[in-house]
Design brief:
transmembrane, transmembrane helix, globular, Cl-channel_core, mainly alpha, membrane
Amino acid sequence: MPLVLPAIVVGVVCALILPGVSVLAERLQDVLWETLPDTLGVGRFSSVWMVVMLTATGLAVGLVLRAVPGHGGPDPATTGLVDAPMRPGIVPGLLLVTALALAGGVSLGPENPITAANIALAFWLGRRFAPGAPGELWVALAAAGTVGALFGTPVAAALILSEVLASQPGPGAFWDRLFAPLAAGTAGALTMSLIAEPSFDLSLPAYTGPHWGDLLSALLIASAGALLGLLAVYAFPVAHRVFTALRHPVLALTAGGLALGLLGALGGHLTLFKGLDEVKVIAGDPDGWSAGEFAGMAAVKMAALVIAASCGFRGGRIFPAVFAGVSLGLCAHALVDAVPLSLAVSCAVLGVLLAVTRQGWVSLFTAAVLVSDASVLPLLCAATLPAWLLVTGRAQMQLDGDGKALR
């Protein structure tokens, strides 16, 4: 009972920081991608403007990281969604470069840096006002509040933390340890729902199954998504070594921005940014592109994710991975239109997320939320099995201090 009130406070504050950074990024994005090109008389998403803007974003982020205290925290290639608390003095600079990257079109989401910032603040304030409470409590509360706000539901927070808590010894029953984080996640989700109404539903046609004929499709598409994700995972340390060889973070980020601009020119403007708004565009018009074009979008987005996450940009990998998975699912449906659209998209997202995040629950949850149809769950659960066999025990999209991939 004594944990309920601090859990609610942490959840509400976490939910307020997220839209604050998002609104700042959106306002700056309007200036960079609408006002400025219109003033200069160039196309908003012309190839030249994409290359110039992404390169300038890399340079700007690099210069800010060089100037701010703590330089934005540790190398983002070595961090995950929930990590140990950083010093609170690092948080302002981290949030600033996150907003710059989101606005500039970098293919990363806000989840990792926002979670890190909230954990740092909750840990610092918690240790000051409740020094007797264990430090890991504040980490769990901040992580749950942030994830609940990101997905608009505490279920996502509970699922992610269930994997974390299951690997940690501790007194009490599992649900006793999950109680306070679930309260924080609920507070974060409700706060975000009241001020922003987040939604991941792609409004795809309802799935009319399950049917036995769809089982093979689900297994193959999820496995294909896992293989696409693994290609990115194994390219990740190679790309990191290339950018590290440049020896200067400003140079590495500028080069990374240039590479992202060239990829944007190749894949089109829908492959830019974190991908949440863009994925609704392509899902809303599944006949607007060919199977080859959808496959190209998926490949470009995964390449952009690898470059952005390895050259030094601060950001998360879930949202761009979702875009790549949806593109792959739309490609599968375009190749074989007998495969139901909702099933193809959800299974492809499931496979890609399993490889990129290595978190089974959040991958399954995200895939199901995108189609908002419980009838796909039996096939999604079946599709998880071969996809997990492909990814488990293999390299992860996270490096250790020596630049080697974790397993």
